[in-house]
Amino acid sequence: MVNYRCYEHLELGFGSGFIMLEGDNGQGKSALLEAVYLLAIAKASRASSDRELVRWGVRSDPHSYAQVAAQVIESSGVTRLQADFSPLPRSGRNDDQPSENGVDSDELAYQKSFRVNGIGRTASSVVGILNAVMFGAEDLELVHGNPSVRRRYIDILVSQIDDRYLKSLQRYQKVLAQRNRLLKLLRSRSASLDELQFWNEELVSEGAVIMERRARSLASLDEIAAPIHSELSGADERLRLVYRPSVSMESGDDERAIGASFKDALARAIDREIAQGFTSCGPHRDDLSPLIDNVEASAYASRGQSRTIVLAMKLAEAEHLKARRGEEPVLLLDDVLSELDQGRQNLVLNRVETYEQCFVTTADPDVIPAARAPNIRRYRVAAGKVQPLTAPTV
Q1: Is 307 exposed, middle or buried (0-12, 13-18, 19+ CB in 10 A)?
Q2: pLDDT tens figures, 311-336
Q3: Which of 83-97, 105-119, 137-151 bottoms out in mean pLDDT, i.e. has the lowest?
Q4: How far from 198 is each of 182, 264, 267, 275, 367, CA to CA, in Å?
Q5: Distances from the Cα of 166 to the Cαs of 124, 152, 210, 328, in angstroms?
Q6: What residues are paired with 70 via a beta bridge?
Q7: C-alpha to C-alpha distance for 68 and 188, rounded to whole angstroms
Q8: What is the pTM of this model?
Q9: Please, what sign has the CA dihedral across residues 321, 325, 328, 329?
Q10: Among 379, 389, 328, 383, CA closest to 356
Q11: How far apart are CA 107 and CA 98, in angstroms?
Q12: Does the structure show a pLDDT above 70 at 197?
């Protein structure tokens, strides 16, 4: 890594196995995991702009750059992934707009680009080369947050194993924007209703692909997550993950049936959508509901219960990826053990240490029982520096 977050320069081979990154908060542990996940999903999980990923001290230098690169070693061979962040010319900046927080800044805007084995690639073509599952404190929003958080969860999962899904998702967003623009024109009587037919057909075509594959993937996750949750919770509770599409559909419906239902929903909603100026149904309005004993978890789950639910979802995601790809994903668990009692900590560790490569961050290294210490690669993270402490003895 070069100039990424708090890291000026870092080159390190972690190897396989259970890797523990220990250190005080704010020292760069989460940034390491974020960098790996960036190469997996072609997006930063905790940044609103690419500029935030560039080391603070160089953001105003027009000759600066940032880079994250890694070698992915699989049974099929070795692949080098690389993400570069380059500053945009100042001429491209709109100086009439205030910077963040309304304060003028000399910091530059940055653009992200990708390479695979040295060859330039689009972001969408990078997704799925490296499979990874990440858990962070912000993932508790999967239970209590708005539907967009849960849609992102399922979109990331399916996109890592299905490039057709990712292409449909990207195309759907573009079509949706065009259709919403046309609805606003129709509201002001500046367009003809006949113009809507093309965008309806495009929306239905891509939307049916998205909804069918979401439903199928969630059905698989539901089966995997339920026993994991029972194991982690230690309680007689049943977790269910239920797909909540905004279009009427039955379990097992294929793309044709879903498309027909979507088309009917758009026809019924046309007057309301013109009045409102936006599309009211489709994959962009879907949701996923975690239920405990058939009750919405968002209505009553405590923070501890929510953490267990999300852990079950994330571990189910890893199992699903492993089954579909035939390769284990990299597990990235950011402060996963805090707020869990010792029994649940051991259950989580029993599961994750079986993976070929698993990163766990903690501010409290004593959270790992001494009996497990010989099997762990430990690293100390402090002020953007990473120092190996131990290697496993077995």
Answers
A1: buried
A2: 999 999 999 999 999 889 999 999 98
A3: 83-97
A4: 11, 15, 13, 20, 58
A5: 7, 12, 9, 21
A6: 81
A7: 48
A8: 0.90
A9: negative
A10: 328
A11: 12
A12: yes
User: If you ran DSSP here, which 8-state letter would residue 366 be given?
Assistant: G
The CA distance from 153 to 352, in Å, is 20
Rounded distance between C-alpha atoms, residue 156 and residue 41, angstroms: 7
Distance CA 183, CA 193 (A): 9
pLDDT beyond 70 at 156: yes
| Calpha distance 369→342 (Å, rounded) | 9
Integer angstrom CA distances of residue 340 from 109, 304, 307, 310: 40, 7, 8, 13
**Cα–Cα distance for residue pair 203/181, rounded to 1 Å:** 14
Answer for the pair 219, 251: CB distance below 8 angstroms, yes or no.
yes
* Strand 66-74 to 385-390 pairing: unpaired
Q: Give the neighbor-by-neighbor strand order of the sheet with 239-244.
A: 239-244, 287-292, 295-296
Concatenate the DSSP letters of all residues of 58-98 into one string.
GTT-TT--EEEEEEEEETTEEEEEEEEEEEPPGGGS-TTS-
pLDDT digits (tens, 9 = 90+) for 331-376: 999 998 887 888 888 888 888 888 999 999 999 988 887 778 778 8
**pLDDT at residue number 96:** 41
Token pair listed for 244: 């909540």
In terms of DSSP H, where are the helices of the chain?
29-41, 123-126, 141-144, 147-159, 163-187, 196-233, 255-276, 297-300, 303-325, 342-352
DSSP 106-125: -PPPEEEEEEETTEEE-HHH
Rounded to 5°, the CA angle 308-165-254 comes to 95
For residue 313, which amino acid is it? M
Query: What does the alpha-carbon distance between residue 384 and residue 53 come to, in Å, rounded to a whole number?
Result: 14
Chain position carrying tokens 């999962």: 157
At 387 the pLDDT is 94
Phi, psi (5° rounding) for residue 261?
Answer: -65, -40
Kindly list the distances between the CA atom of residue 207 and the CA atoms of 132, 175, 178, 273, in Å, as whole numbers in the listed order.
Answer: 26, 10, 15, 17
Length of the chain: 394
Element (H, E) at 25: none
Helices (H), ranges, 234-341: 255-276, 297-300, 303-325
